[in-house]
């Protein structure tokens, strides 16, 4: 079971200078919540907005311009690879940047300065190759929405321990990027032939590329066909070289797609793995296994608190900080997709309770599902930088046993609880009984009050539990959860940025 250094245990946000919530969907620019420990020690944790005000002037475009300006001033040799025609005015996806491997320490210093100058915060560091780090910076805009910039910075191009292309081969001939009118931009790109081979190697190695990426390859090939063909000679034999050159010249890449497996085999057959590269690759994989870059989040609360809507919207807003997103309802379901957008379609409280023996057997089944499902599916997903969100969790059985038709002793559930893997963050949606009744009406007011009190009491013994005011509209609720999640990620990333 993974151990995560706790930030704090949360009882309730104490709101300072907060405007009353309207239904406009905007988060007041000055909202800044402080969370108080349950243990009464008086220690505080500034959970919202990274302990700062939203940055109304910062956009992905202006942030990228700042990063380019900083790199230019720092003297770090770099170039941006991939489709850069619309940069920096339009930023879509990651920004692939190549630097000399010897500049690793300098780039960390430059990124720290970038944080200070822009106010953006580092929330994710993905070590996806031996000399490659994907840094993800985030900030809140004036509406409280998270914004992201993801420079993916690579030295020598390694893949699975194989050196495919030294960074110096493309940095030595780098040139300033040009806009569509032929005017120089403020960042560097590889020479056309170097861009062609670098981008082609990445696409062949990954085994797929779309029409837009294929057009980009043909365009840079056309700018220097002789230089591009010389590069092909270093990686493939004549038959494969002809396939690739003909595809690039005519922008007809179907034969390449059909031959992708043989192209991969020959590419990897021409590259050797050194012992130092193998050791480095194994160390990288072990590090990622020990310190996953995904986040495991649980959303709890009574019926009518808005969990389903929050889960979906939270996944959408935080998706740029992760490779993928995975939704689950209550338990892992042995790794199968299990999230239902309307879990109340079949009201569970009207069903009869199981017998004592049936209840005990069901709890054992649930515990096995959590342990095996987590080990075989949830944890591997976290290693692969997945945002894993659960709508309800094992804790719910203690709060609302009738929902799960449980009629056995509470001691049996408590005995199982230590076996259940704990999430990184838990959010309890708390709303007034009147609001809960208006939204669904499945529970009586007395039962809603009892469940809310039970959630609070149960959460006192759990690390990283936040109570969220669900009387607000959806945008405000998700903004609160999102900013607390990004604050947790910021704390975690600060420990990992130089590793």
Kindly summarize this structure in a few lines.
With 499 residues, the protein is α/β, with parallel strands linked by helices. The chain has 17 helices and 18 strands. Strands 4, 5, 6, 7, 8 and 9 form a six-stranded mixed β-sheet that branches.
Number of strands: 18
Q: DSSP helix count?
A: 17
Spatial extent as radius of gyration: 26 Å
For the record, the CATH architecture of the largest domain stands as 3-Layer(aba) Sandwich
Q: Mean of residue pLDDT?
A: 84
CATH superfamily of the largest domain: P-loop containing nucleotide triphosphate hydrolases
Fraction of helical residues:
40-55%
CATH class of the largest domain: Alpha Beta
User: Quick one: overall form?
Assistant: elongated
Cα end-to-end separation? 22 Å
pLDDT < 50 runs, ≥5 residues? 1-52, 341-345
Count of discrete domains: 2
* Approximate strand percentage: 15-25%
If you consult CATH, what is the topology of the largest domain? Rossmann fold
SS content category: alpha/beta
Largest sheet: 6 strands, mixed
